[in-house]
Amino acid sequence: MEVIAKPRVSWRMLKMGTRMALFSENERVRLRAIQHLSYCNPFLPERIAFERTILGKKFIETGEAWHKRADEVADRPNIDRLTECAREFGNQARERLNRGTRADDDELSLYVDVVLYYLYNKYQFRFFEHVRRGHAGASPDAPEQSFSFYSEFQEDLIHYLGMPGIPFSHEESDHLFSGFFQIRRAFHHIYDNIIGGSMVSAKLRAAVWQSIFTVDMRRYRRVLYKRMGDITTLISGPSGTGKELVARAIGLSRYIPFNRQKRRFAMNFAAGFFPVNLSALSRTLIESELFGHAKGSFTGAVKDRTGLFELCPEWGAVFLDEIGELDPGVQVKLLRVLQMRTFQRIGDLSVRRFDGKAMAATNRNLERELREGRFREDLYYRLCSDIIVTPSLREQLAGSPEQLHNLLLFIARRVAGEEEAEVLTREVERWIHENLGDDYAWPGNVRELEQCVRNYMIRHEYRPPAIHHGQPLEELAESLRTGQLSAQELLEHYCTITYARTSSYTETARLLGLDRRTVRARVKADLLERYR
Fold first, then answer.
1. Maximum alpha-carbon separation in the chain
2. DSSP label at 234?
3. Which are the contacts of 495, defined by CB distance < 8 A and separation ≥ 6?
4. Strand, helix or coil at 305?
5. For residues 390 and 371, what is the distance between their CA atoms, to the nearest angstrom?
6. Would the pLDDT of 438 be above 90?
7. Rounded to whole angstroms, how far apart are CA atoms 404 and 439?
């Protein structure tokens, strides 16, 4: 391993230097908060306590949910103060170490984490420019971007971390550069694609962050960054709740190695996401789309075709939408891909490998599909190692009704343009209040809300479709009569039915004589849409 040249400070100087601690007790408290802030989930409110500890009286109060706002007011006014604070601590500690101040392992760990927090914030805007350029050149044959500022980044790392007691190398520098770029991409794709200021929306953003980095970013940085492709992510939730947006955020935020000599990453992140809607294709077309086919393998196969599992690079992702619609025969082939990471083209005996990440989505209750024999149990357990549930629009608005205005404004900008967005939003919001009511369930979720805006813009009215999904209570009665439900499933149905009527966890808990937390855990989103 090639080691980066270090400043002329010997280990003996550190070991035999002054016995004064590297940090005072007060500094340790604030540095520990910076360390926790560096590794915590940015979309959970726990970060606020760390920021308050670091900044003290300089802290500016903000909302709990870090989210994209339609009014474009920054919801992180503390970020510049936090960055400057980390820079000052890093410089002070470096000077003390160069003077020979003795440091123990814990102090060195604090120092390294504070420096990395500072350097990430210093370079995040340059990384973001490359995120924007990556999307602009998203075709697979587009030339890779050159990251010319890597040399400056490496010099900063040497300046702060190139000293005795801190293991550091070119390889570690490359890995940190890759990690910083991944973090910036992940934040951008989650923040931009999953909007909403409610705590329900914040928890969804946090869940997506965990699907990318897990709950332990230290472990991710050490070893898991090269193993997350082995884990399949299943995204479930009602139609129109943004399941593909979640998949896209994860797929475009994967770790990609950096090549120091070429000053480029191994691939353009924007060209590594391969979505396919399984419900729109026949079985033959699905197999051809996923696995590819050889010329002459079936009628219409006039030439060889490369499937998505073969096209997808090691650091890319394939997204299988509507996995619940998959034919049992294709389920067997998909299971082999997920288990063995191998597959064959239709009509070809050559064994090929899939090294990317697989993701799937469904609005069906796969547990019910298992019981009724329409979905393979072994495939289900290959899919469910990481599950994300997208909330309905009703759930998002239940605790934060003011978020309707924010969502309408985003939609209005897209369908009518910036100049008319504010006026159109106020008109639609007033029309909804007067005609649908504030408690309208939005069974079509955000997709229906967007159509409401479009309908109003064209005709000054919106007529919700009269969709009937059968008789769910009669279906439940039949399941009870034939003994198809477990006691836990029965409780889920009962809690969900009652909540569908009350729209209140507290009132449901009172009526059923249960703890509110139990009710909240038992109300299921997919059942809720049916009973409403």
1. 82
2. E
3. 508, 512, 514, 518, 519, 522, 523
4. strand
5. 23
6. no
7. 12
CA 291, 292, 295, 301 torsion-angle sign: positive
> Would you report the helix, strand and coil content of the chain in percent, each value rounded to 5?
60, 5, 35
Per-residue pLDDT of 116-166, as tens digits, reads 999 999 999 999 999 998 887 655 555 567 899 999 999 999 999 988 778
Residue matched to tokens 């997919």: 526
* Short-list 22, 175, 12, CA closest to 111: 22
Q: Report yes or no: 474 and 455 within 8 Å, Cβ to Cβ.
A: no
- Which amino acid makes up residue 513? G
Output the pTM of the full model: 0.83
With both helix axes pointing from N to C terminus, report the angle between 79-98 and 105-136 in degrees, rounded to the nearest 10: 130
CA separation for the pair 459, 359 (Å, rounded): 39
Please tell me the distance from the alpha carbon of residue 335 to that of residue 342, in angstroms, as a whole number: 10
Which amino acid, one-letter code, is at 349? L
Beta pairing partners, 83:
none
Tokens representing residue 396 in the block: 């998002």
H or E stretch covering 235: strand 233-236
Residue 123, H or E segment: helix 105-136
Q: What is the DSSP string of 436-462?
A: T-TT---TTHHHHHHHHHHHHHHHS--
Assigned token pair, 276: 């396919």
Instruction: Provide the 3-class DSSP secondary structure of residue 387.
Output: strand
Element (H, E) at 211: helix 199-213
Q: What is the C-alpha separation between 244 and 255, in angstroms, rounded? A: 20
Residue 529 banded pLDDT, cuts 50, 70, 90: confident
Two structure tokens written together for 97? 């170490």
The residues near 158 (Cβ < 8 Å, ≥ 6 apart) are 4, 5, 6, 168
**Region 289-309: what's the mean pLDDT?**
91
Separation between Cα atoms, residue 208 and residue 245, nearest integer Å? 10
Structure letter (DSSP) for residue 315: T
Distance of alpha carbon 95 from alpha carbon 113, whole angstroms: 17
User: Cβ–Cβ contacts within 10 Å for residue 32, how many?
Assistant: 18
Handedness of CA 413, 128, 112, 169 (dihedral sign): positive
